[in-house]
Design a protein that fits this description.
The complex is a heterodimer of chains A (179) and B (322). Helices cover 40% and strands 20% of the residues of chain A. Chain A is built from four helices and six strands; from the N terminus they run H-E-E-H-E-H-E-E-E-H. In chain B, strands 1, 4, 5, 8, 9, 10 and 11 form a seven-stranded mixed sheet that branches. A four-stranded antiparallel sheet of chain B has the order 2-3-6-7, with helices on one face. Classes of the chains: A alpha/beta (179), B alpha+beta (322).
């Protein structure tokens, strides 16, 4: 009887030991796997000059010689910093100094965008609830210049530095002086 | 605890570990958007890793040189195809790496053969696969990281390619911006990469590209520095000045010319001009010390005909024609 009980105990202990060893080996393997793992890049296609830009509800590219879409977010500090530049573009359009139509597009809700625009006195047209992924936009701010056929003429990812902003303003087609 | 129970427990453990590993791998995947600005209307196209063609081209390069191209191609890598009928002899690639926090790092690399833009017509006789010249109907591989395949050439047609060594050893890239090795950075912090051909000179002197880096003006300044120097020598000799006097004049110019000691990158074209003018002047003066015969040296320096120098100009459709 005692012999049988001892045998059973021994069997249990052996099984537990095997289990512990197995867990230890797996834990070591898992730790090595996690520690040695480098980030695996998944490259996705983004914007490409010359390609057709997807249509955005309420924006007709044919409405202007060229349209500048400014991808912004209410949470993006660089976007807020760039608002004076975007307002300059809006002013130029209002004053007839350029035919470029600047439209700020946001992934945020309409309420959020309205509040943001009011708070930061954003003068450009703005559209809310835009699906950036569908437009291949990943970073804010991003400016995409689209011609009247909807083709991407140029784009700029990230906030423009002051000299690049000036270069951009200078490149805008000059309006003919009033006769 | 019988054997069945034991096996079941082990199976559960193995499953848990597999799920954890899969989750870890999933969380380690970083999504990087690749934006491209090329000058495809002029025949220069960028093939990024996001294009299906990239892996085909990579395979072709791999088959060509088994050990030269690592399997783990860095994410910041592209092929540039020259589908035009002309060779591209000077060009600049601009990489803009956008971090998760919105910061954009710009890395600018230029590759040039100024001698070809100074009228060297025999360059086609060279083994151009070992240079950075973007030959017509060929492609080259470029990476932001260190890569043994940097600049390696690939044919666009099914024709057999020349055996091309890495050109990096013979013609190092000339950076005109900050340098960075994206592999050493945390890849997880990269949101997008934008690569653009900011400027390119064809062998006939035609320039294409956005030119946000003022590459056209810089390259033109470099060429003009030599052109003006040689033209000055030619004029003086034609006006009857003695070679020794011309040399003394060059010595004077060299000693008074204020030029930067090195080019750091985004230099002003005027600085580029003065830097190269001083460099060419010093070359002439050094050769004088060896040659010992001013007349012979000056005659050798002067080109037979300045007309063979390509006229550096922006493509006609550009609004600002130079």
């Amino acid at each position: 009887m005692n012999k049988a009980k001892a045998k059973e105990r021994l069997e249990i202990l052996t099984n537990i030991a095997v289990l512990l060893v197995a867990v230890a080996i797996l834990a070591v393997l898992a730790l090595n796997y996690i520690g040695g793992q480098k980030p695996v890049p998944r490259i996705v296609e983004g914007l490409q000059q010359g390609q057709q830009f997807p249509t955005i509800s309420g924006v007709a590219y044919t409405g202007a010689a060229s349209t500048l879409l400014i991808a912004m977010s209410t949470k993006c500090a660089y976007c807020t910093q760039s608002i004076p530049f975007y307002n300059q573009l809006a002013d130029m359009k209002i004053n007839g100094k350029t035919s470029l139509r600047a439209i700020a597009i946001f992934p945020n809700s309409d309420d959020e965008v309205q509040r943001y625009a009011q708070q930061h006195q954003l003068k450009t047209e703005h559209k809310s609830s835009i699906d950036f992924e569908q437009l291949k936009l990943t970073a804010t701010p991003t400016m995409v210049l689209v011609d009247q056929n909807g083709r991407v003429v140029n784009f700029w990812v990230g906030a423009l530095k002051p000299d690049a902003q000036q270069q951009f303003l200078n490149s805008l087609e000059p309006q003919l002086p009033d006769s | 605890m019988n054997k069945k129970t034991m096996a079941a427990i082990l199976a559960i453990f193995a499953m848990l570990i597999s799920i954890s590993a899969a989750l870890v791998q999933g969380s380690n995947t970083v999504r990087i958007t690749f934006n491209v600005k090329d000058v495809s209307p002029d025949g220069l196209e960028i093939v990024s890793p996001a294009h299906s063609e990239f892996s085909n081209m990579k395979s072709k390069l791999l088959n060509k040189k088994q050990n030269a191209f690592r399997e783990d191609t860095p994410p910041a890598a592209v092929f540039i195809k020259n589908k035009s009928k002309k060779d591209v002899v000077a060009y600049v690639l601009k990489w803009e790496v956008t971090r998760l926090d919105g910061r954009v790092e710009t890395i600018v690399n230029s590759y040039s053969r100024p001698d070809i833009l100074m009228g060297k017509k025999t360059y086609k006789d060279e083994n151009l696969s070992t240079t950075f010249v973007l030959r017509s109907n060929k492609a080259r591989f470029f990476s932001l990281s260190e890569s043994s395949a940097q600049g390696r050439e690939l044919g666009l047609s099914s024709e057999a390619d020349d055996d091309s060594g890495s050109p990096a050893s013979t013609a190092p890239a000339r950076g005109i911006g900050t340098s960075a090795d994206i592999e050493n950075d945390s890849l997880a912090e990269v949101k997008s990469i934008t690569v653009s051909i900011d400027g390119a000179f064809f062998d006939d002197g035609t320039f294409v590209g956005e030119n946000s880096t003022k590459y056209f003006e810089r390259m033109k300044a470099e060429i003009n520095a030599k052109y003006d120097l040689l033209q000055d020598i030619k004029n003086r000799l034609e006006n009857g000045e003695q070679p020794g006097d011309v040399m003394e004049h060059l010595l004077d110019v060299s000693s008074t010319l204020k030029a930067p000691n090195s080019l750091t990158g985004p230099d002003e074209p005027a600085d580029v001009y003065n830097f190269f003018k001083k460099m060419y002047l010093n070359e002439v003066l050094q050769r004088r010390a060896i040659a010992g015969n001013d007349a012979l040296l000056l005659n050798r320096l002067l080109p037979q005909n300045f007309d063979t120098w390509p006229n550096l100009h922006k493509r006609k459709s550009e609004s600002t024609e130079d």
